[in-house]
Amino acid sequence: MSTEWSAGYVTDVNYTFGYYGELNPLRCRLPLLTVGRHAPKIENACELGFGQGLSVSIHAAAQPGINWYGTDFNPSQAAFAAEMVRLSGAEAKLYDEAFAEFCNRKDLPDFDFIGLHGIWTWISDQNRHVLVDFIRRKLRPGGVLYISYNTLPGWSSSAPIRHLMKRHADVMGAPGQGVIGQTDAALNFIDQFLALDPLYAKVNPGAVERLKQVKAQDRKYLAHEYMNRDWHPMYFADVENWLGDAKVGFACSAHVLDNLYDLNMTPQQTEFMRDVSDVSLRETIRDFCMNQQFRRDYWVRGVRALVGHEQVAAMREERVVMTVAQADLPTKVRGVIGEATLNDDVYQPLFEILLDHKPHSVLELETHLASKSLHFGQLSSALTILLGLGVITTAAAAQDVSKAKARTLALNKTIARRSLSVGDIAYFASPITGGGITASRFAQLFWLSRQNGGKTAEDWASFAYQVLQGQGQAIIKDGATLQGEDNLTELRAQATHWGAHVLPIWNALGV
User: Fold this and answer.
1) pTM
2) Residues 6+ away with beta carbon under 8 Å from 392
3) In whole angstroms, what is the distance from residue 412 CA to residue 431 CA?
4) Cα–Cα dist 310/466, whole Å
5) What is the pLDDT of residue 80?
6) pLDDT per residue as tens digits for the range 224-251
7) I need a labelling partner for 298 at 20 to 30 A (CA). Which of 30, 90, 113, 237 fits?
8) Which H/E stretch holds residue 459?
9) Cross-strand bridge partners of residue 425
10) How far is CA 370 from CA 62, 137, 365, 390, in A?
């Protein structure tokens, strides 16, 4: 692996094809408004270090009202993202430039939204200085910064395991192994070492359990997560010190369930937190209470608080849409310290109106709940929980949907055709949400069959079966490889379920 242009970052293998909803600028509005913070109108957006670029490709296709820019220094990943955008018919200016080069371009506009997912604690101080300077110069007043990063104290006990992995790869790994082979060798080495029962393992039993989880993860992900030269988990206050120079202030967690203290802390801890007036110290204490390993946060350049009537009025204009089937509606919500049952008196009236899978304004929902003698505070809390559970998401402006439909259809066809060979992309684009929705490989094949004239579950299953047969592939179910027509039987069952429970939602979401 050459370090001349990679700056110590893993480039031997491409990153996984993940989609991250927090990078959707339309989504940031509801979490901000719910905690009483002003949410800006987004016209120009930028994603730095976009990896394979699936998120930025989906957002560029599904959000015709937003001008997208971005960079990822891996040229193969940047080329893939640019090709996806081109095939969708969207326009986005995506580059394969290093941060120092991209961030000093003279042709960039000022941005209303800048996204940094999984970048901050995997780069050098030099690059962090570049990013802070960029945010200071190019994020508009009122603009939103989304940033995610590995956090202390959650990584305190497991960080030594990562050190051993990287150290083993550096001194014992053979160049011909490649980073995947080096990762596997390092994991095996650590397994053998921990079997010797070192005192570290006795003092940090959680780290041993963490290693078991790590070993089950995708090797490409692990290589990018653990095997870079730079890997620096940070306390919240450390990140705040860095970002202070960019004139941004913390607004709220993008993982909205983290904002609900009762789910994540004991009553005594919550009461203790209320007496801590300093935001930085309060967030740090929260991370200690939750043993936080990974933060996803929204920061704003010039955080503006909304007074009561302003907050309610702004929220009433937001639109949300349900993205799950009735059979998948939750009855409980789980936090760090336990779970809570969702109150039927509040949630059933909400489900009644949202189950048409059409966008509804918060004002519509409020009016409906008011007829059941429920107040706005209960609605606000319920929306936060449902957004955190992935039951609902924000909906794009109505005038943007028709413009986005042709582009998302083209992008989805491109993704689905890829599923004829591999199943590495598990998302489609929705013009209704302006973002991505989960779409497994078989679901994509069923959809593609339907696009090509397939009308029944039998048609869809037969199409998918022919694809598997042509590639000599078989379905693995409950750990066993299915044989012969057992694959077709399983596909029929999956196609029937897809047609009854998933397709109606996809149709409603414009997929």
Assistant:
1) 0.89
2) 320, 321, 322, 323, 354, 383, 386
3) 11
4) 57
5) 94
6) 666 677 788 999 999 999 999 999 999 9
7) 90
8) helix 457-470
9) none
10) 33, 45, 8, 24
